[in-house]
Amino acid sequence: MTPKVAIRALYKIFGPRDRAMVPLVQGGMTKSELLDQQGHVLGLQNINVDMQAAEITVIMGLSGSGKSTLIRHLNRLIEPSAGEILIDGEDVMKLGQAELRAIRQKKMSMVFQKFALLPHKTVQQNAEMPLSVQGVDAAQQISEARKWLARVGLDGFEDRFPAQLSGGMQQRVGIARALAANTDIMLMDEAFSALDPLIRTDMQGLLLELQAELQKTVVFITHDLDEALKIADHLVILKDGAIIQQGDPQTILLAPADPYIEAFVGDINRARVLRVRSVMTALSQDRFDGEISADSTLEALIQQAEGDTTQTYRVSDGRAVVGQIAMKDLVKALVPRPAITEDQTR
Asked: Are the CB atoms for 148 and 127 separated by under 8 Å?
């Protein structure tokens, strides 16, 4: 299956001779050595990621890991030092300015951390902006903007100005504006990090609800592991501009491949994040103490079993029985596994 977005051997080095520095990094020069010896800063190193259509790919890492640098390469707000960026199989690096503008207007929309709303325009006018840029007629601009504002819960707020809205409501305007653009791909750079925890949780729920309905290809940047585990279909974890581990979030949580990842996931409430499908085993018996959905959290199963560790449940996906889960296996899954060390991989 051809990915919607494919990143191949992407490097970004900040400095006047960035392309000349790429072979040095490929030869093993570290980030600190590059800075000390060459006066250049390593932003991204050999990034390879496939982002599938209708999935949420979350890029996460601490400050300085390169996650925001990476997302800005997708629409070439930042030019790479080396590598390929393919959208629907087309190399974005080979596009001229007119073709690049068309991609930014019609294939990608962006939701920013600081909302990026124009303060002198109303909520309605802000939501209409991408349609205006696309040259859509005025009547359609109005109807589409109103539709998406209503969809994100802002019906009746069209004539307000951004300063009259709470932070959460302003971010809803940002999401409505991105949806009004009717693009296949949505880029969300720390979109919820400026919000209070309860509002942030509400916005995460809204995103998942919209995604279930609209099936966009979403690239979501965050430094929050709880947020990443909640919304990601595919999780990419960066450190110092390089990918440390990527894959299904449940797999990363159960089997961290690096001490850095192990430290990340160590304090996570595994019962709230892990799904039954990640712990279940093949069907091997006929009698059960109950049934549970494969997508239920382990916390939900503990509540259903009332903490009884002797019970075993049949697991279904809504259509058929897909396995079983014993409470003793659930308890084992709640204990973090140590990371794979270099010696263990030899």
From this structure: yes
The answer to whether the beta carbons of residues 291 and 266 sit under 8 Å apart is no
* Angle, vertex CA 334, rays to CA 333 and CA 340, nearest 5: 65
C-alpha distances (whole Å) from 230 to each of 104, 201, 220, 222, 262 are 28, 10, 12, 12, 18
For residue 119, which amino acid is it? P
pTM of the model: 0.91
Count of other CB atoms within 10 angstroms of residue 288: 17
What are all long-range contacts of 89-97, with beta carbons under 8 Å and residues at least 24 apart?
89/2, 89/6
Q: How far apart are CA 287 and CA 121, in angstroms?
A: 63
Name the E strands within 212-256: 217-222, 234-239, 242-247
303-335 tens-digit pLDDT? 999 999 999 999 999 899 999 999 999 999 998
Q: For the purposes of burial, counting CB atoms within 10 Å of the CB of 58, is it exposed (0-12), middle (13-18) or buried (19 or more)?
A: buried
